[in-house]
Amino acid sequence: MAESSGLFVDRLDQIRADVDAHSSEWMPRERVEATLTSKWVPPHKDPAGSSTLTIIWFQDEGTDPFERLAEIVRTLDWAALAAYEPEED
Length: 89
Prior knowledge:
89 residues; 25% strand; 3-stranded antiparallel sheet; 28% helix; alpha+beta; 3 strands
């Protein structure tokens, strides 16, 4: 193995067979990440701050990431999930 170049995964055939036995499809190949910022501030926090939420998802290549992001955001509770960030001086 030390003399061969490239990536080597021990027992790759066994791993693929295990995945095939437990899953009907592979995860989409494209990883997408969006960081959203809002002026929304939780109660009792400095109003000069903001809140941020990072969303990571996988999707099929060639599909619109903004459309998928809009679908995801509609289902989220921003107040429960976003991180408050005080404004820096």
